[in-house]
Amino acid sequence: MKPYPNFTQLTCSERAGRDNFKTMLSCVLPRPIAFVTTISADGVPNLAPFSFFNAIGSNPPAVMFSPCTRADGTDKDTLHNLSAVEEFVVNVVSHDIRNAMNQASFAYAPGVNEFEKAGFTPIESRFIQPPRVAESPVQLECKLIKIVPVGDGPLSANICIGEILCFHIADEALLENGTANVEKIDLLGRLGGPDYSTTRDRFALEKPTA
Ligand SMILES: Cc1cc2nc3c(=O)[nH]c(=O)nc-3n(C[C@H](O)[C@H](O)[C@H](O)COP(=O)(O)O)c2cc1C
Which CATH number fits domain 16-21+30-196: 3.20.20.70, 2.30.110.10, 3.30.565.10, 3.40.50.1100? Predict the structure, then answer.
């Protein structure tokens, strides 16, 4: 290990929002991807990926993701739907479904079903209304706890916090201790711009002792 000799300072308040966004995406990575299913008030399913996503605790087991306000100041369909029906599914994104996931990120008009557009198979959830994605190796059924707005206007965040009610793990990826086999689920990470990573290059660190 060696300390870096110099650092350039980029002060956020002196930069355009878009530039802060790009810098942030190049520094905070790899980001896991939540491929989120919601449904509209009239029952049309919606599917969209979000890499502002993470697990946040386990009592209760909970996750968060953030649909940001679009550059034109409008809200994403996922946020609209969650305000009407407070339930969502996080479908994880394996390497196998990368292209179809990317297709589903297109800004389709509200009311367009991305399951059909991107070729995914909806399957019923057990406890909530939004369907799961059968091609995803793990799905988390979630009940919305709250939405926390961060900022306002274009590119502001809307942190959607949900309690996980149920995990669905594909049988071939389920280990005996109730966890998922990391190699089998073969998840992606999001980097900056168009770039992604896999979780194939792994190593272990043992817990430290005093
Ligand atoms: C891998 C990936 C990750 C993304 N992460 C986010 C994110 O964290 N927040 C966000 O607002 N948009 C994110 N997007 C863009 C949304 O998926 C996109 O705006 C989508 O059209 C939103 O769909 P909706 O309007 O149906 O909710 C991401 C796109 C991709 C491909």
Answer: 2.30.110.10
